[in-house]
Amino acid sequence: MNWFSQVAALFGFGLRTLPTRKGSAAAAIFGVAGVVAVLVGVLSIGEGFQRVMLSTGSPANALVQRAGADSEMTSVLMGDTVGMIESAPGVARVHGKPMVSPELFVVVDLPKRSSGTDANVPMRGVNPMAFAVRPEVKIIEGRPFAWGRNEVIVGRGAHNEFKNTDIGTQLKFGENQWTVVGIFSAGGGISESELWADGNVLAPAYHRGNSYQTGVVKLASAGSFRQFKDALTSDPRLAVKVVRETEYYASQSRVLRLLVTGLAVIVCSLMGLGAIFGALNTMYTAVASRSREIATLEALGFGTGAVMVSVIAEAMLLALIGGLIGAGVAYLAFDGYRTATMNWQSFSQVAFAFEVNAALVGWAIFYALVIGLVGGLFPAIRAARMPVASALREG
Amino acid sequence: MTDGKPIVRMRGVEKLFHRGAEEIRVLHALDLEIGAGDFLALMGPSGSGKSTLLNLMAGLDRPSSGSIEVGERRIDELSRRELSRWRARHIGFVFQFYNLLPVLSAMRNVELPLLLLPMSGAERRRRAETALEIVGLSHRAKHTPRTLSGGEQQRVGIARAIVTDPTLILADEPTGDLDRKTGDGILDLLQALNREHGKTIVMVTHDPHAASHAARRLYLLDGQLSTEMAA
Question: Is B61 inside a domain boundary?
Fold first, then answer.
């Protein structure tokens, strides 16, 4: 019998004794399940937030903002800058017009549906070209706002998260009353967390004059980006930065992701320690209650190494079961759960859904197995060091 | 029944244990030879070193000094891993408390040592059936230890000890947990294995009645072989 078959046989004997130790085994399983459920739950926030950010934008779109700005909030582009952007090489054209969408970005207060507390919600002032550079924006309920009128359309995510966003509702922002006339989707991207209105109506309401925050540019192709960027950044009349739209939104998720991951690491490291003690207790009990049996097997010729590995394998199996239960619970409890949180780069709310995906579950199961490995290792060492001769006589 | 050829040779074997600073000498420069086909009873009071001697023969423990040869192999020079492999092939154990795996049937318990030897599942089952037949327990093959009497459990233990056809069978107080009548049945079985199947058996016991079933008796007192009597 080779070594692996010995391990398999010993592992099988151990499993068959589990019903006699079901209390401690269940404690270990549920300890690990709790850790994994929390780990997956917390990290699914970051995954969901990142999903929104990565779903936003197109690699063939570029964003132009003031040099040094790290978000739309801190960017200002004057009206004459827009003309220079439109004439830059690499810009796509539709019906002979350059596909450049100069956009205003303001933050308005809306109460959250969940708590009733006010939250910062991004509101974007656009011109007709905005719908051409973002073809993913579609009206799913109601109608588009009418140009020149105080009307807004609300992103699907914002509608789910904030009160006073139903069609027909009157809102007061800036110095104006606004009417909600439609709900839109945007392929799951961040635009779904926004309110959109006619930029020419929004600008005077917020005393913005002839200025914008961002120029969203549709490029002739994704490969035109370098040519476009070089032309703008080398123009001594302009002090702008140019980034791909996809890269911009990916970078916007970094702070929250870092925060969430840090929180998950701290909480789950502490909980993991608890789970390791649970697994240790279970396996020490197993080794103690089976000491005569283990000694007998060693006396018959089963190897000490095989005994050790079988103890560790049992701990890892219990941890795996706990991990799968925890991941399952997290999936059922968190996946798709919709909420909104602060985007720390723009200081405005982003609506998103928690996302429990395969990669996240994979990492959580890996963590569970590490808990099982550590929880099984020390009892396995005890089993290996057990004096066989005296253990054989234990009653 | 012995053909005189030594199967166990112990030369100058000493065994020391340490309890804190105290040194306890359990065996003193012990010489012993056991012939093939012998049935030896090792007797002595508690703490005399008889179980230690048995463990040394089994390779479960190492001598502090001296040499131990079993079947022409110096087992005191083997590594722990080599000893495990060696035991699987050459030693059959009979324990006082039977030491059966409670989750396995009698048949599976008997098959256990065969898992360590290269053979097919069918061969394993055939050998286990034969061993159970020899100890008279074929009809209880599918029973788990919990449903067997003490005597039946010890018979399963003996079947497990002989199933690999080992060089040496080591029995540690095999009747210590049984009543007199049941114990006699076990001793008769060991005697039959020795006389009819030529098995070499070393039995540790403190019971003179049990020892009377052996062909040869040795007395250990304070770690020294003090008397040897022919049966």
Answer: yes
Distance from CA of A293 to the nearest CA of B (A): 6
d(C-alpha B37, C-alpha B42), whole Å = 16
What is the three-state SS of B151-204?
HHHHHHHHHHHHCCCCCEEEEECCCCCCCHHHHHHHHHHHHHHHHHHCCCEEEE
Selecting from B95, B104, B117 the residue whose C-beta is nearest the C-beta of A392 gives B95
ipTM of this complex prediction, to 2 decimal places? 0.90
Q: Which pLDDT score, from 0 to 100, does residue A206 have? A: 87
Asked if residue B17 belongs to a domain, the reply is no
Q: Is A314 within 8 Å of chain B by CB? A: no
Q: What's the total number of domains in chain B? A: 1
CA distance B58 to chain A (A): 8
Chain B neighbors of A6, CB-CB under 8 A: 115-116
Question: B33 in a domain, yes or no?
Answer: no
**Where does the pLDDT of residue A187 fall: very low under 50, low under 70, confident under 90, or very high at 90 and above?**
confident
Q: Is residue B18 part of a domain?
A: no
Q: What CATH number is attached to the domain comprising B122?
A: 3.40.50.300
**Chain B contact for A293 (CB, 8 A cutoff):** yes
Question: pLDDT averaged over chain A?
Answer: 88
Strands ordered across the beta sheet of B6-19: B22-35, B6-19, B65-70, B73-74
Express each pLDDT in A157-186 by its tens digit: 899 989 999 999 999 887 789 999 999 999
Contact in structure between A370 and A269 (CB atoms under 8 Å) = no
Collect all residues of chain B within an 8 Å Cβ-Cβ radius of residue A304: 80-81, 84
